Amino acid sequence: MAAIGVHLGCTCACVAVYKDGRADVVANDAGDRVTPAIVAYSDHEEVVGLAAKQNRIRNISNTVIKVKQILGRSSEDPQAQKYIAESKCALVEKNGKFRYEIDTGEETKLVRPEDVARLILSKMKETAQSALGSDVNDVVITVPFDFGENQKNALGEAAGAAGFNVLRLIHEPSAALLAYGIGQDSPTGKSNVLVYKLGGASLSITLIEVNSGIYRVLATNTDDSIGGVCFTKALAQYLASEFQRSFKHDVRENPRAMMKLMNSADVAKHSLSTLGSANCFVDSLYGGVDFDCNVSRARFELICSSLFNKCIDVVRKLLDQVGFTSDDINKVVLCGGSTRIPKLQQLIKDLFPTVELLNSIPPDEVIPIGAATEAGILVGKENFSLEEDSLAIECSAKDILVKGIDESGADRFTVLFPSGTPLPARRQHTFQAPGSISSVCLELYESLGKNFAKQENKFAQIVLQDLDKKENGLRDILAVLTMKRDGSLHVTCTDQSTGKCEAITVEVAS
């Protein structure tokens, strides 16, 4: 019985089919194994994939990219605000929900992000069915580790509208491990695996402990400031400077010309992963002038040297966060299309000289293959029931900390829920406050590690007021924090001497 796995990334989507005991990525109607996650709207049709990407120059205001970044997010979300500022397709808020403003010529229509995701997922479904020659509905879809409940619900809604029966949403790092059979082929013993994912729009690093076939996330870090598009932009800027040097025209402030250079740079970047040089040709770049430039791999690596350093620094910070050295890592799994870059692979090998680097599966196909493998396991079970026959353990995506003060009067953060804590979970925290004050405030922070807590990461506080003052000594305050599977956090604070209590609930804390 066939089942499929789908990975919807920020820039690309990919589908793999599980059949006859193995999972394989299948090509779309253009012959490509990866499809751009781009949707273009015109007067009479909706175009998905490569054609939408190629025509973006002419139809940029009606072309939606990176829909995954806005899916299920609220207007208060900083990531949503960043996305809106960068999007060339206008977004408006209606009834608390985002809508893309699409001008079809005759009218302006509002399109939900879920509907954009539905079109991309429908494309994946059609691709799989064309390869199988039959209808298939059962699917496992991957999500980032830091996807919240609202984002998962929005993705599930889009998948249902595309005609899918979603067996499970699994985390991308777990799918990467499944693709290589880690913890499945030799389920005994303990090992530490680093999943390094560099996609088009972000860098995500996850450290997973594999013990007797069970995956436990020790730490995770996502950096949205770097992705494959950053390498493309750096190369496009270099091409613009070469054009200026040759033809004395600066095209950096010309959006249409820069879009052409971005397209050419993107093609060249992919070519340089396998070739020593690539030719960048743009027809009528500016003022009717054609542009032709050859870029060597060495030149590309020099242009992007600071980006490569940033990609490695994130790994070092994550290891420091958990107190690990490179010798504590047993395997490194590469996934995400940008990890094809030879220079990046070499830097990772230099960082982990004695560690097995797993890159035999094309990096942009690892996650969908893992999802399809999981789908095959699920549909292969007799009388399959999601509740009865499977074990899905939700985990906290970030560290949850409380703020206190040490003996010197400096701020001290205590981690109560480390990232990767299986949910639901309950923690107690007792702290002391001067008896001379009548109110006490407990502040809650979220972070990617106790060394990264910042003032702006505070997400909630609870205040005990009107406390009876004590002449001498300290008062003991007991805080009880309960985090549910959906990431919501219930907090109670009790003054131990008087029994006075306050409680709050934070809807999505992690």
From TrEMBL:
It is found in: Cytoplasm, Cytosol. Keywords: ATP-binding, Chaperone, Cytoplasm, Nucleotide-binding. One of its GO terms (biological process) is protein refolding. Pfam families: HSP70. One of its GO terms (molecular function) is ATP hydrolysis activity. It comes from the Eukaryota. InterPro entries: ATPase_NBD, Heat_shock_70_CS, HSP70_peptide-bd_sf, Hsp_70_fam, HSPA14_NBD. One of its GO terms (cellular component) is ribosome. The keyword Acetylation does not apply. PANTHER family: HEAT SHOCK PROTEIN 70KDA. Component of the ribosome-associated complex (RAC), a complex involved in folding or maintaining nascent polypeptides in a folding-competent state. In the RAC complex, binds to the nascent polypeptide chain, while DNAJC2 stimulates its ATPase activity. Component of ribosome-associated complex (RAC), a heterodimer composed of Hsp70/DnaK-type chaperone HSPA14 and Hsp40/DnaJ-type chaperone DNAJC2. Belongs to the heat shock protein 70 family. This is Heat shock 70 kDa protein 14. It comes from Ornithorhynchus anatinus (Duckbill platypus).
